[in-house]
Amino acid sequence: MTPRAHEVKVRDVVAETGDAVTVSFDIPEDLAPRFRYQPGQFLTVRVPSDRTGSVARCYSLSSSPHCEDRLAVTVKRTAGGYGSNWICDNLESGDLIGVLEPAGVFTPRSLDEDLLLFAAGSGVTPIMSIAKSVLAAGTGDVVVVYANRDADAVIFGNEFDRLTQRFPQRLTVRHWLENERGLPTVAGLVELARDHRDHDVFLCGPTGFTAVTLAALGQLGIPEQRVHREQYRSLTDNPFEHTAPAATPTPTGAGKDTATVRVEIDGETHMLNWPRDTKLLDMLLDHGIDAPYVCRESACGTCVCSVKSGRTRMLMNESLIDDELAAGLTLACQTLPESDQLHIAFDQ
């Protein structure tokens, strides 16, 4: 199902810390199927702007589809961050706001596996969604390593306390506070993670924290294919301002060497000529097909699709892991054709 933009009502805005809020949404019943989501996914939010009309910002869902009936994102104010400051300062219960449907691939394949979750600052948002889901609907054990500036900056501190009391045998939360221990170190993280090196790892946080954590995981010998990273990037394109081309445009690359591709998307099948120097997503948009995308930089995973037959190659990949590549998944925003005949499916 291709993500589309909708206006939804804000149910509540709750302060988590002095500079972070959780925003929950009321999703109309007729849209409920399109807003089903996996723990660790994100929403893309339309933030009004006097200068450009709007800007698009991606925020991870902090709610769990397994134990909460409303979607919620948690937003931390960042210095100079237009979107986060606007949300923290202006959004109120009852407001209408534009959002794209849930997207992203930062999700566990099973809720019955043991997980080691690393977060720093607002990176805890998808980590909380994953942790709650495993505890509520799975059998896996969860270890959370969470770094913050100080105790006042800890998002979900009370919720983590409640969860550890409810699941004392399955959840362990280890806080790293900079005002007590300094910045996280490789040696310190190795010590915290040593007994859990057989767990699958999910990691979300700023670049510095990510680099130190990856170095620690490397020292522990944890294979790269078991390490899943969430990365936040500024969008180079605003999906809310995108206007679909006319129904019968002149395709990009007309007259050039092309492959023939059958594309299944939103329950429809299209037979198209695919120029060999044109990315799959660009070709689909040029034909007026409402293909899913957000970042167009391979980081978000929104445009993931399956190569059913034929060969393709990706120019860049920052969201799919080896197992997903082996299963035939690819990113439309980075994919070029190599075979003469191909079959691509977006309906997973």
UniProtKB/TrEMBL annotation:
<dbReference type="InterPro" id="IPR017927">
    <property type="entry name" value="FAD-bd_FR_type"/>
</dbReference>
<feature type="domain" description="2Fe-2S ferredoxin-type">
    <location>
        <begin position="259"/>
        <end position="348"/>
    </location>
</feature>
<feature type="region of interest" description="Disordered">
    <location>
        <begin position="237"/>
        <end position="257"/>
    </location>
</feature>
<feature type="domain" description="FAD-binding FR-type">
    <location>
        <begin position="3"/>
        <end position="109"/>
    </location>
</feature>
<keyword id="KW-0274">FAD</keyword>
<dbReference type="InterPro" id="IPR001709">
    <property type="entry name" value="Flavoprot_Pyr_Nucl_cyt_Rdtase"/>
</dbReference>
<dbReference type="InterPro" id="IPR008333">
    <property type="entry name" value="Cbr1-like_FAD-bd_dom"/>
</dbReference>
<keyword id="KW-0560">Oxidoreductase</keyword>
<dbReference type="InterPro" id="IPR039261">
    <property type="entry name" value="FNR_nucleotide-bd"/>
</dbReference>
<feature type="compositionally biased region" description="Low complexity">
    <location>
        <begin position="243"/>
        <end position="257"/>
    </location>
</feature>
<dbReference type="Pfam" id="PF00175">
    <property type="entry name" value="NAD_binding_1"/>
</dbReference>
<dbReference type="Pfam" id="PF00111">
    <property type="entry name" value="Fer2"/>
</dbReference>
<dbReference type="InterPro" id="IPR050415">
    <property type="entry name" value="MRET"/>
</dbReference>
<keyword id="KW-0408">Iron</keyword>
<keyword id="KW-0479">Metal-binding</keyword>
<keyword id="KW-0411">Iron-sulfur</keyword>
<dbReference type="GO" id="GO:0050660">
    <property type="term" value="F:flavin adenine dinucleotide binding"/>
</dbReference>
<protein>
    <submittedName>
        <fullName>Ferredoxin--NADP reductase</fullName>
    </submittedName>
</protein>
<dbReference type="InterPro" id="IPR036010">
    <property type="entry name" value="2Fe-2S_ferredoxin-like_sf"/>
</dbReference>
<dbReference type="InterPro" id="IPR001041">
    <property type="entry name" value="2Fe-2S_ferredoxin-type"/>
</dbReference>
<dbReference type="GO" id="GO:0016491">
    <property type="term" value="F:oxidoreductase activity"/>
</dbReference>
<keyword id="KW-0285">Flavoprotein</keyword>
<dbReference type="GO" id="GO:0046872">
    <property type="term" value="F:metal ion binding"/>
</dbReference>
<dbReference type="InterPro" id="IPR017938">
    <property type="entry name" value="Riboflavin_synthase-like_b-brl"/>
</dbReference>
<keyword id="KW-0001">2Fe-2S</keyword>
<dbReference type="Pfam" id="PF00970">
    <property type="entry name" value="FAD_binding_6"/>
</dbReference>
<dbReference type="InterPro" id="IPR001433">
    <property type="entry name" value="OxRdtase_FAD/NAD-bd"/>
</dbReference>
<dbReference type="InterPro" id="IPR012675">
    <property type="entry name" value="Beta-grasp_dom_sf"/>
</dbReference>
<dbReference type="GO" id="GO:0051537">
    <property type="term" value="F:2 iron, 2 sulfur cluster binding"/>
</dbReference>
